[in-house]
Amino acid sequence: MQPYVGNGAFPGTCQAVGAADDCTFGLIVTQLIGTNLTESPLFHSHLEKLGNLNSSSLTQQACLSYNGKNVVNLPASLPQFSKEDDPTRILSLHCNIYPKEDICAPLPKT
């Protein structure tokens, strides 16, 4: 992987391939290195509608990639930042998983 991603080479590899970082990573692993990727229901692309995920399983997910208005739906029972402060709800989710992080101090308590 070193020639494709090491020493800051990854952005150039993405540009040369003409694909987003996740697609380029998959191409490097499968085509250039010759290793199969493992599909997992715990990884979610920014192209996937995060609002369709079961809100009770959000804290068990390995990766939630979001983009713009693609937001997660948190259960109303969880403390949340205002939609103005956290329009994607990712910060609120993060702080419910890791409440002791400094950035989470202003999170309203229930």
Task: Walk me through the structure.
The protein is mainly α and 110 residues long. The chain folds into two domains: 2-33, no CATH class; 43-104, no CATH class. 30% of the residues lie in helices and 4% in strands. The protein is built from four helices and two strands. The protein has helices at residues 2-5, 10-17, 21-33, 90-97, and strands spanning 43-44, 63-64. A two-stranded parallel sheet has the order 1-2. Helix 2 (10-17) crosses helix 3 (21-33). The mean pLDDT is 89.
Short description:
This protein has helices at 2-5, 10-17, 21-33, 90-97; strands at 43-44, 63-64. With 110 residues, it is mostly helical. Helix 2 packs across helix 3 (21-33).
Task: Give the topology.
Blueprint: H1 2-5, H2 10-17, H3 21-33, E1 43-44, E2 63-64, H4 90-97
Parallel strand pairs: 1-2
Helix pairs in contact: 2-3
Number of spatially distinct domains: 2
Sheet having the most strands: 2 strands, parallel
Total number of β-strand segments? 2
Order of helices and strands: HHHEEH
Per the principal axes of the C-alpha atoms, what is the gross shape?
Answer: elongated
- Return the structural class: mainly alpha
Poorly predicted runs of 5 or more residues:
none
The spatial strand order of the largest sheet comes to 1-2
